[in-house]
Specification:
single chain, about 190 residues, mainly alpha, Hypothetical protein af1432, about 60% helix, about 0% strand
Length: about 190
């Protein structure tokens, strides 16, 4: 059992508790994990995303919070890829449908895909994102891209990735995480 007490979330309340306990931890040098999550969800809403994709945007980095709670270090302190996307998607799978967990599981692969298909994109990544890209395998090969594009959630994952890259505004006035709880409960099984 991890320090978070969670292998798989059994309730939305457990997710709320994790974000309440660890969400104020830094996401990067500018904003907290909580602020990044809320900004990402707001961007998804502003784009007219489905309720499931908004929740995927909100919770896409829950695996980072689980890793921080488990190992006591920030994501940028990892020297190996902790596979936060897999940790998070697996922990959420009991509560949420594949339309939530699929984009979460693939959002790192979506970064690798985008780096392979858009040379300019790599230049827009933050230094932390470039460093993690190296740990995550770098840009995809042609074979990896073809395989990625067969996944039913690949397009949703690339949308999520776009919001993930943008949701880093230190000057934003974010609504509370609690504002998304009713939507989370409505999407949960």
């Amino acid at each position: 059992m991890s320090r978070t007490g969670v292998e798989q979330f059994d309730s939305v309340d457990e997710i709320i508790s994790l974000y309440g306990g660890w969400g104020h931890d830094p996401y990067d040098e500018e904003i907290s994990q909580l602020s990044h999550a809320v900004q990402c969800a707001l961007l998804a809403q502003d784009c007219g995303a489905s309720a499931e994709l908004v929740i995927a945007a909100l919770l896409h980095d829950v695996g980072h919070l689980m890793d921080v709670a488990e190992h006591g270090i920030r994501p940028d302190g990892f020297v190996v890829d902790m596979r936060h996307e897999a940790t998070g998607a697996q922990a959420l799978a009991k509560l949420f449908p594949a339309s939530v967990t699929g984009p979460i599981a693939l959002h790192v692969e979506a970064k690798r895909w985008r780096c392979a298909v858009d040379v300019e994109y790599l230049r827009t990544l933050s230094p932390a994102s470039v460093a993690s890209l190296g740990l995550q395998g770098g840009p995809m090969s042609a074979h990896e891209r073809a395989r990625f594009e067969t996944h039913p959630q690949w397009r949703a994952a690339t949308q999520l990735r776009n919001w993930d890259d943008t949701a880093k505004n230190a000057d934003a006035v974010d609504p509370p995480f609690a504002a998304f709880v009713p939507l989370m409960r409505s999407v949960a099984r």
